[in-house]
Design goal:
heterodimer; A: abc type-2 transporter like fold; 4 strands; about 70% helix; B: Rossmann fold; 6-stranded mixed beta sheet; 9 helices
Chain lengths: ~375, ~240
Amino acid sequence: MKRFLGFVKKEFLHIFRDYRTLFILFGIPAAQILIFGYAVSTDIKNAGVAVLDLSHDEITQKLTDKIFSSGFFKNSGTLLNYNDIDKVFKKGKTKAVIVFEDDFGKRLINEGKASLSIISDGTEPNTATLITNYTTSIVNDFNRELAGPDINNAIRINPEVKMLYNPALKSHFMFVPGVITLILILICALMTSVTITREKEFGTMEVLLVSPLRPIQIILGKVMPYFFLSFINVLLILLLSWLVFGLPVKGSIILLLAECMLYILMSLTLGILISTVSKTMQQAIFISLIGIMLPTILLSGFIYPIENMPKIYDYVSSVLPPRYFIVIIKNIMIKGTSFIYIWKETLILIMMTLAFIGLSVRNFKIRLE
Amino acid sequence: MNEKVIIVHNLVKKFGNFIANDNLSFEVYKGEIFGFLGANGAGKTTALRILSGLSKPTSGEVNVAGFDAYRQTEQIKKNIGYMCQKFSLYEDLTVKENIILYGGIYGMSKSLIRERLADLLAKLHFQEYENRMISDLPLGLRQKLAFSVAVLHEPRIVFLDEPTGGVDPITRRQFWETIYETASRGITVFVTTHYMDEAEYCDRISIMNEGKIVALDTPERLKKQYNATSVEEVFIKIARP
């Protein structure tokens, strides 16, 4: 045990003496959270919307006011005819144009229906979809306001459109769990694989293997400091996202931390596995970045919903651990669900951890032979 | 000089169909400097790994420091030291931290480590370097230190795997003085090398070729036997008959 502790201490010295390692451990996660939280925000705020009102009546005026008072849009121009639409889009500031047909108000009162078109700039599909959704929901709201008293004066239905779980459709609520998922696996796997291959590259691994330290002690000694530091990292990220974005943890914080520990452990074993197949640090870094970061961002459901992917990507994504952790962490943090809803995902992560350990031991033995 | 610390009898190591070590037999005595020579791929590394408890023989008898290489590798590891070409020291740790680390790994007590550390620094005139990073030391010093660390726990045998690669001849000469000093304390030095002038410094040398030991004797007798003026000549005559 004493041998082991001295060895762990040495690993901490390596980490604290290398500013780059410290930066990767703590600087990058903080930066990622802020970048993804702010810059990659998919919220709509003051998006330019122009109006083409061919009717000019009281109702269209009311609806227009309602749309612009929502805070999501700002009026980027009042158009006179259809020809202006193309021009205003080309200027670039307008993301959507709302068109009221002729006699909008009259039709609505007489026929009970009138139509309005939302024309959006398809070159930015995400924004376009969001604007369309937002506008539609405002219009629906307005419809009900208008219709309410007509149907029955006694019952004033004033429905509120509300998105479940993310009422304000705040995108950091979606991004923070994703970023935690990405950062933990990336840092844990990258750091462990690099620290182990570094010993190989410098030749110190041979010396350690010849020493009375058992291989399992060497691996544990190298990995333990990272387990500890990654856990601190989780606390930091949660604290940061709470302070900066006001993101609460709705479910049990203990369950969340326990799941994070499992995920860290899984990522560390993945790092060990990577180190058994790479000879140099560059190779380890390459495998970690290309093999883990890209699939996690693209295929784990972090940004793009898995349901929308072609079947083949769905299969590919089912072998990615982050896919399961994202479900777990979103459920606990945002929906506040309990363990019974996420036991399946947890079990899958445990199985993956065991598989990575098994494969690493096998590779390690082959190398020793 | 009669106590045997390494006994190898009919050692065979196969990887699939490839025979890396073909019936090796030799003995090494206490306090001896034993040179282990051979071209790349001759099977030196494989034999060294078996002797240091890193891999198991396919067949044959191997006994190191009184322990069996099949079942007692843990015991063997405690009784040997090891230094390889790439230096076994951590560059981002200080001299003192490296010594404490290795002392701890070999289960030495704190007071013993402190005592040996002081001895070692005094002997190498290293006091001023105690708290310097290894990366600040010149190559020659690092190498001496690496060797001293390898014998810090007073092992019965120290294995040196091409210890002087990439070092100038003067530093090499100085390094060998440390080796002599260690051997005179009764620690057996088992050294693989590429430099034939180094082979001359050994008490006995063995030369491997294609998995077999083809010559084993003192450098003088080998030179006489092969009618050569240097070990290098002997080596060339054996390797390219």
